[in-house]
Amino acid sequence: MEAIVILKPKEIQLVEREVPEPGPGEVLIKVMASGICGTDIHIFNGEYLGAYPVIPGHEFSGVIVSIGSQINRFKVGDHVAVEPNIACDNCIHCLNNRQNFCLNWQALGVTLPGGMEQYVTAPEKAVFSIGNLPFEQGAFVEPLSCVVHGIERARLRLADRVAILGAGPIGNLLLQMVRLQGVSQVSVLETNPGRAELARQMGTDHVFTRMEDLPLNTYDVVIDATGVLSVMNRAIDFVRPGGTVLLFGVPPSGKNLEMEAFKIFQKGLTLLSSFTSVRNSFQAVNLLQSGQIKVKPLISHYLPLKELPQAIEMIERHDPNVKKVIILPNG
Ligand SMILES: [Zn+2]
Ligand SMILES: [Zn+2]
Q: Is the pTM of this model over 0.85?
């Protein structure tokens, strides 16, 4: 079978690899749709956790083609999505329901082979049935799980006014999720015209294309979905006194924010971050199956596996026509 391997930062290659065998408690998945995420770009650039070489791809869905021993919930032919973070379930964090901070954390596509290959094994506990949800939508179960977790952390109140900085695929999912919370107003900051237009279509009240135009001291909740330090630094300016800032976008590792500490103190702000998800996959599947969250408009490209390196280049160029890119490892 074919797989894409990141050998080391900035070095990526299509390779031939044996189809893996599912061990006890594992299933083998034929990968049908695998989303490219900003995290994959960070891994490609050497800015994220994980060890090299690695087969990237942590947002994917597919069909179960064989099962190991001791499998209870699945049979061959089931359509599934994967929750890529694998917790040990036996460390102090796991035992306190903080599996995202597992001391023995592993993740498909980060430390273990991920979905940018034709077949991948996954432990049964990381696999969720998607029924007849189309595969390309199943590839959004993971990012949507993270969004559900982040929005639950932000504890929005009815009629809140919310600003979302950045309307890439994640910003757009955040926008839709926020919309379901009974807020009175959602503003989006997005400089890319294609993404700004999509945010408008998906129910944004105000789209700002320049950061200077965003009103100061206004929003009950400001959510950064860029992970860009210069934007994150400004989030505390747009939130009202006593409000909440949620830092959601993945920033590059090893870099510091520059925020005025006195401003945070004087405004009495709540600063939150959100790391991956904690048991949010069923929620994500329900939201997609019910159509409450719409992901088809977020997809701009469907590409074969061998074009992943070019797709990464295209995303890094910030082409206005690029939204979510879905790789189809099995055509
Ligand atoms: Zn992701
Ligand atoms: Zn653990």
A: yes
